[in-house]
Structure of Phosphoglycerate mutase-like protein 1:
Amino acid sequence: MTLVLYNNTTLPILLNSSFVPFTSITTSHNPSNFKTKTQPLTCVTHSRLSLLCLSSFSDNMDSPAGPTLYPSHRCKTVHLVRHAQGIHNVAGEKNHDAYLSYDYFDAHLTPLGWQQVDNLHKHVQETGLSKRIELVITSPLLRTIQTAVGVFGGEGYADGIDVPPLMVANAGNSERSAISSLNSPPFIAVELCREHLGVHPCDKRSSVSEYQPLFPAIDFSLIESNDDILWEPEIREKNEAVAKRGMEFLNWLWTRKEKEIAVVTHSGFLYHTLSAFGNDCHASIKNEICKHFANCELRSMVIVDRSMASSDPATTNYPGKIPNGLDLPSDVAAEKLLN
């Protein structure tokens, strides 16, 4: 699997990328399982449910430049979003020690953060992106959930609509109206795409039982524990562990049937996950993939399966010769004459 950049206004552009595997990641059906296994670079087996996530770790920049082609049914488009400004971002900018304060436990968005959400919501509507996304995945923290529903949710919720709202009014100190799930894609919360675990209370989530009444239309069924048992007060997750978890998340993402997916997550998670990619690209492209995300920034990528692990059939290809008839191309006929 490799990542390539995608332009929202055009067809996918697949970069001329080769890649070298450095680990294999063993995944499970349940993305809340964080166990990974690092193996040598030999005798790697592929399966539909345990996809080898290949990243671009080659330093060889001598490969010829230019576009390349790949079958679209072996690709997924992923729209990556960092959450909007949270109260912890403001406090931490002034004093880094604020990240250790329980005043910012499961930090919610600021009023400025909600303005950022509104602007990105307008962008995804105007570009038609909102109509193409088949699934929204969110980290199960308050600031990411608020960002996800605000950006990709429907318009204001009204009583009498026979669908649950994505967010009830004033959820999480938002001072916002309810947000409808009408005509919106499904939303699911996934633990794998959380921020660094541990030490910082802003990165500790509330219980699922607290979230569910506030965000009735979000599916929390993939979260195994009601309480946050992954966050530890004295141990901060290492960057390498976040990167491995990110690869496991991408492997799990590949098993989804949806072809165009939005993921709302965190700066650290995105940076350490994406840093594994783009090493065989031009430096400017590597930077575009891996640089830190701004609050409420969206970047669109294409995940390409080069391992033949995917079994999804092409839905738009057409076999031709229906009805059957003679169709020998002139260049093939010329070759036959020469032979």
User: Anything to note?
Assistant: The longest helix spans residues 111-126.
